[in-house]
Structures are given as structure tokens and as C-alpha cells.
Amino acid sequence: MSLYTQTIEIRDQLQSKSAEEILKAAAEKFSGKVALANSLGAEDQVITDLIVKLKLDIPIFTLDTGRLYNESYDLIAETEEKYNIKIKIYSPDAEEVEQMVLEDGINLFRKSLDLRKKCCHIRKLEPLKRALANNEAWICGLRREQSVTRSDISEVDWDEIHRMPKFNPLVEWSEEDVWKYIKENNVPYNKLHDKGFRSIGCACCTRVVKPDEDVRAGRWWWETPEQKECGLHLVNGKLERIKKAN
Ligand code: SF4
Fold it and tell me: Which of 13, 95, 130, 159 is deepest in the core (most CB within 10 A)?
């Protein structure tokens, strides 16, 4: 059976299951070959807490684009210390970054959508590719209600770019659920959330959002909502998902 077909089966088995059940299933089905991509957002911190408490064999990595807030680096250190774990940090290729900056400028992402995507590609997608090279599946903290680009994600999606399943254990959680869990379990979180940030990425591409705005409105705020993905969570290079079984 192909990995894609297995993904469909697993997705159907995991419909409406709890985050704990989804994580246990990921660890069981892809033992030693599944990792959490911790973007240092509130959701991924919840998943980190669950992985540690459930004692699952799921390594954790993060991507250091070189443009993160200091608070994000502090969170890596705080999380490692609290849980006594190591978070593997992947950085972009130095020569590629130097060439990009030489050709397009240090703040190229403001000049056009294509250049913004180029920056995300070099600073995020290439390191992600390396991080996933020895894995057969990955886990992340996407939630359906986060934005228009994430409204139809499933408990497990097929990632066509990396040709492997991607588990979304918090797919059904609300933002309120995430923060309730964080407070009740004393989970470390990015202190920028206390200053009004709701989704945190690179410092130059993230800003505070108003209470009535979309969670991800502060990311690449100069772009339209449909364009607001960095490419980490695209399917077939587009915002498509495998359809749910009826
Ligand atoms: Fe570059 Fe901004 Fe993407 Fe970070 S979020 S990789 S700075 S374009």
C-alpha cells in the first residue's frame, strides 16, 4: 500500500479523535520516523507538552530563519530547560542567504510577493526539507479556525511537497482551548503573546493584531489573506487538501 493510501486510511481512522490519540497514532505508525515541527507558536508548545507527558518517541525541531524575535529564542531555551529536552535547530544555508541579500536586499520581502516567497523558501523551506529528510511523517499545530487558508485541514493531511503525511493534532481546537491548556498546565509560551501578538513568525513579517482580526492577520499584513502562507503548509504547491470521506 502506498504512503498516500495509508494516509487516507489513517485520516479516516483519526477523524474527530483527541490530540492525545492523534499523537499516539503518529508515534505508533511512524515509530522513530515522525517529528514535531515546533514553530514556537502557542499550539506547538501545547503539542510539545503533550509529547513529553505521553513519553512519545517524537523528536522536536524548529527553524531559525535568522530573523526571529529575541523572545522566540528565549522560548527555545525555556522549553528545553523545563522539559529537559533538546530542540534541534535548523538554520538556512549561509551562502544562499548571502546571495539572496546581495541580489534583492536585506528586506526583499517587502518588494513583491515573489521576493517574499523567495525569502521564505531560503530561510524556511530549505531547512524544513533537511529537517524532514530522514522522516516519513511530520506533526504541526495547525488549527482549522486560524485563517481562510486553513479552514479545510484534516487530522492528517497529505503533504505533496515532502510526500508524507502531516498530522494536525489540534485541528479542532479553538484559540481559547489552546490558552486554557497553556494556563492549566503551565506550558512555556512566547511572551510576545502578552503584548497582543497572536501568531508569531519572523520579527520583520509579524505585527500585533486587533481583537476582531483574523489570528494570522499580523503575518505579512501587506498581503491579502489568501496569500498568507509561507509554503510550509502547501499541498501540491497550492492550498489544497485531501477531501474528507463521506
Ligand atoms: Fe523572510 Fe519574512 Fe518569510 Fe521570515 S517570514 S522567511 S523574513 S519573508
Answer: 159
